Amino acid sequence: MSKTLLSIRIVFIALCAWGGWLVSFTILAGESNKAWAVVGGFLIGVLVVLVDILLKGFSLRGLSAVTLGIGVGLLIAFMVGKSPLFEGGTMDPSTVYLVRVALFVVCPYLATVIALRGKDEFNLIIPYVRFVPHEVDVPLVVVDTSVLIDGRIARVCESGFLTSALVIPRFVLNELRAVADSLDPHKQARGRRGLEVLNELRRIKNLDIRITESEVTKREDVDAKLVFLAQSMRAKLLTTDYNLAKMAEFHGVPWLNLNSLAKSLRPELMLGERLDVDLVKPGKEDGQAVGYIEDGSMVVVNGARAHIGRRVQAEIISVLPTAGGKMIFARQVGEVE
User: Fold this and answer.
1) Looking at residue 318, what is its pLDDT?
2) Structural domain 142-263, CATH architecture
3) Strand pairing of 236-238 and 140-143?
4) What residues contact 279, with CB distance under 8 A and at least 6 apart?
5) Run of H or E residues at 22
6) Which residues are registered as beta bridge partners of 319?
7) b/e sequence 195-229, b meaning 16+ C-beta within 10 Å
8) Is a pLDDT exceeding 70 seen at residue 101?
9) CA 20 to 30 Å from 311, out of 85, 167, 253, 324?
10) Do the Cβ atoms of 95 and 133 come closer than 8 Å?
11) Are 268 and 295 contacting, i.e. CB atoms less than 8 angstroms apart?
12) What are the pLDDT digits (tens) for 254-312?
């Protein structure tokens, strides 16, 4: 609980107690009655705060369901209470009154419970109105410009592996638009690629994208504002910028890196395993040719220099870990495609 919210609740309870004391001057008489009025106001304030705490995490769909249930229940109770069943002098007036009170209690309760349990969309009940549920506990991921320009986020989201809601600040969109409008053709291409990726994300069904109206005055403040947003929203930061990731780590903000994800998804290669390699250039040693496989790992094939520019089948003879990934040494086997 934040200090501000705690202060508001304490002030509210104090105002309720003070209100009870004021009421005692106009309705009640005697010092003991005034004391009971203050206690009563205090207890009412505590009760309201407890209801507030119990409603924590109550979604928009829940609120709309309760409102609809109470409204429908009251309407049913009113129509039954005014029906011919209660007309005539055969029933005692006090009994009729109690039955109607019971209807006004039971009918809204049952209608509210049914509305809360139901999974139907409200636009089937109220035409042209659709309540979209956004659960408070949905995990959030703040996206920076580098991720949109990178482009791989669209394929990751389309695969369904990233189930968090994507939070894109307004200043990230402005920065992306500025890059797309740049006079530098390379920056312009990167910016337009980011805008295309953004449109791809919008076309993915069931992907929760939220635009936050947040601005920055200086370009240098973008990284700091991203970290602040992620920290204040208790969200993770999705980036391919190493410096931004380290800044987030320093401030205790968890971060996700698409490059780390790509490395973790690389298949484990075994000695003796066979690969199809596209040879692109000669190697350092005589007869060697260099090619690359789908994950970007470099493969050095012995005795294949004559087949540069073609695809060959090679058998792995050794794997050497490097800072940029893995270097694979292989020998050519089989026929050349």
Assistant:
1) 85
2) 3-Layer(aba) Sandwich (3.40)
3) parallel
4) 289, 290, 291, 301, 304, 307, 308, 309, 310, 311, 312
5) helix 3-26
6) 328
7) bebbebbeeeeebeeeeeeeebeeeeebbebbbeb
8) yes
9) 324
10) no
11) no
12) 888 777 777 766 667 778 888 788 888 888 888 888 888 776 678 888 878 878 888 88
Ordered by start, the domain boundaries in the chain are 3-124, 142-263, 274-333
Q: Which residue has the higher pLDDT, 56 or 277?
A: 277
What's phi and psi for 184, nearest 5 deg? -70, 120
Residue type, 91: M
Joined tokens for residue 330: 């292989």
The single-letter code of the amino acid at 73 is: G
Tokens of 234: 């208790």
Architecture of the domain made up of 274-333? Beta Barrel (2.40)
Does the pTM surpass 0.70? The reply is no
Answer whether 48's CB lies under 8 Å from 12's CB.
yes
Q: What is the pLDDT of residue 129?
A: 44
Spatial distance between the Cα atoms of 92 and 100, rounded to a whole number of angstroms? 13
Of 30-34, 76-80, 228-232, 318-322, which gets the smallest average pLDDT?
30-34
Three-class SS state of 160 = coil
